[in-house]
Design a protein that fits this description.
Blueprint: H1 2-73, H2 85-88
Amino acid sequence: MAVIGTNSAVGKIEVHQVTSLQDLRSRIVRCDQALSKHSADIGTCRSEVNSALREQQTMKENLKEHIHRVEAEVGGPKQPTLSCLSILY
């Protein structure tokens, strides 16, 4: 009778361990999926930031060109005042 009780207890422990392992495996899968999603989101954000930086640089260059044209039209910056361009640097 003691052997049957021991076998039953061991069986319950094995079932519990298998259930725990399955739970851990499913958690690992969910974590891997979340990491993949976050990694993709970070890549997208990085791309958007780089795009915004390029656009900002283009706008800055266009503004410098415009300031040069306007200063040339009005005879250049007066001394000793600072050029508008010095603000952009």
